[in-house]
Amino acid sequence: MTRTPASAHPWPRLVTVIDERGHTVTPACSHSPAFALYLAHCTRCGAAYTGPWKLLAFASRAA
């Protein structure tokens, strides 16, 4: 069963909050361990993203 995201944006910018810090996440093909524990949401509209997602690698978050 595939769950579809609630956000209407084709490539939503997603974030999740872990230990009171926002983390950018990206849609994924399969569920990640963090997906089971935390909720991601769209930064544009605030809708919950119910599809599978994963945390971005540390190097890809560096400025």
Count of individual helical segments: 2
Give the neighbour order of strands across the main sheet.
4-3-1-2-5
Q: What structural class do you assign from the helix and strand content?
A: alpha+beta
Quote the average pLDDT.
79
Give the strand tally: 5
Biggest sheet layout: 5 strands, antiparallel
What's the topology here?
Elements: E1 14-18, E2 21-27, H1 33-37, E3 40-42, E4 48-49, E5 53-55, H2 58-61
Antiparallel strand pairs: 1-2, 1-3, 2-5, 3-4
Tell me about this structure.
With 63 residues, this protein is α+β, with helices and mostly antiparallel strands. The chain has one domain. It has two helices and five strands, in the order ββαβββα. The protein has a five-stranded antiparallel β-sheet with strand order 4-3-1-2-5. A hairpin with a 2-residue loop joins β1 and β2 (21-27).
Keywords:
2 helices, five-stranded antiparallel sheet, globular, single chain, 63 residues, alpha+beta
Outline:
The chain is of the alpha+beta class. Helix content is 14%, strand content 32%.
